[in-house]
Design brief:
7-stranded mixed β-sheet, Rossmann fold, alpha/beta, Quinone Oxidoreductase, Chain A, domain 1, 6-stranded parallel β-sheet, single chain
């Protein structure tokens, strides 16, 4: 396919981005061209928009942003066999090589030669995107297209929740950003019996409550550890899911965690974190998991089933559904922290 399309482009190495016309991407033999229906804004997109230190060291301008999407196949490369025109799809954003040690041992999400969609190659804030067949996911038609665009971040939440079973467990989620909100619904679906959520934003705590949190806490007014211990009869929680990247929240989570408990870390601290490993982790026999990306594709299968069955309803977490040309409104809300997931309708607007 030839012609031009609208895309949100990081044109210069500075804060901001622009909605401009660019060429529709050509596809390689192993790639698929997708007409995008919906794309959602991620924290990574905010970092690129703001042009923080990470973005300055990683992104080469001009660059099409975005990596979370749903859409329909409009063209396939000559070697593509698993997809055809009209298929309803989304994409894994960790584009793996398939031949390094990690890929060969079942950890392609941390491939040694990893490329990330919307970071290392042109992204999804556009009318069309080219992606390799090996990372394309065929969506269940029972899933609304807007919901299908958030499966990638929902996969992050799922793997953070399910690093070990939460069935019958008490859980504290530190950080109620968009992924933290989704983690609330997932933890409930998988049988968490008592769910605490802490965040500095009352706006986000209110959404977490609507997603199924039992108790919401603000570190600005609440002693998180004290409240958790009081409501767990002095035991502490079995599981902490750290979504904020805040060093203070990490310490609060470890303090509230019962000896022999589990902590999963998804939030990304801006700076190195200092821990008292002896007393906070080792003597408490804490199991710590670092989580990045999603299992390709077992996590997608589970997320798809949760959404198709409505066992998890992400509606409260999707706070903004905007037309493509109104992307700036959504980005401003993300920057200000006054949103959950922001979804942009690109096709059919």
């Amino acid at each position: 396919m030839t012609g031009t399309m609208l895309a949100i482009v990081k044109e210069r190495p500075e804060r901001g981005a622009s909605l401009v016309r660019v060429d529709i991407p050509a596809i390689a033999d192993d790639e698929v061209l997708v007409k995008i229906d919906y794309a959602s804004i991620c924290g990574t997109d905010v970092h690129i928009y703001l042009w923080n230190e990470w973005a300055q060291n990683r992104i080469k301008t001009p660059h099409i942003m975005g990596h979370e999407f749903s859409g329909h196949v409009v063209e396939t490369g000559r070697s593509v066999r698993g997809f055809k025109e009209g298929d309803f799809v989304s994409s894994e954003t960790h584009i793996y090589c398939g031949h390094c040690y990690q890929c060969l041992t079942g950890h392609s999400e941390v491939c040694q030669n990893l490329q990330i969609l919307g970071v290392d190659r042109a992204g999804a804030f556009a009318e069309y995107i080219a992606v390799p067949e090996r990372v394309l996911w065929k969506n269940d038609p029972l899933i609304p297209a807007a919901w299908a665009s958030i499966q990638e971040p929902m996969g992050n939440a799922l793997d953070t929740v399910n690093a070990e079973s939460v069935a019958g467990k008490t859980v504290l989620i530190t950080g109620a950003g968009p992924i933290g909100m989704l983690a609330v619904g997932i933890a409930k679906a998988f049988g968490a019996t008592q769910l605490f959520v802490s965040d500095l934003s009352q706006y986000r705590l209110d959404i977490a409550k609507r997603m199924g949190a039992d108790t919401v806490l603000s570190p600005l007014r609440d002693d998180v550890e004290a409240v958790v211990r009081e409501q767990t009869h002095g035991v502490g929680v079995d599981v902490v899911l750290e979504m904020s990247g805040s060093e203070k929240a990490i310490h609060q989570g470890l303090a509230a965690l019962t000896p022999g408990g589990r902590m999963s870390l998804l939030g990304l601290p801006d700076q190195p974190v200092t821990l008292d490993l002896t007393n906070e982790v080792i003597f408490k026999e804490i199991r710590v998991y670092g989580v990045t990306g999603r299992k390709i594709f077992p996590t997608w299968e589970t997320v798809s089933r949760l959404l198709a069955s409505r066992l998890v309803d992400p509606t409260p977490a999707i706070t903004h559904q905007l037309k493509f040309e109104d992307w700036q409104t959504g980005m401003d809300a993300m920057v200000a922290g006054t949103s959950g997931k922001v979804v942009l309708q690109i096709a059919g607007r």
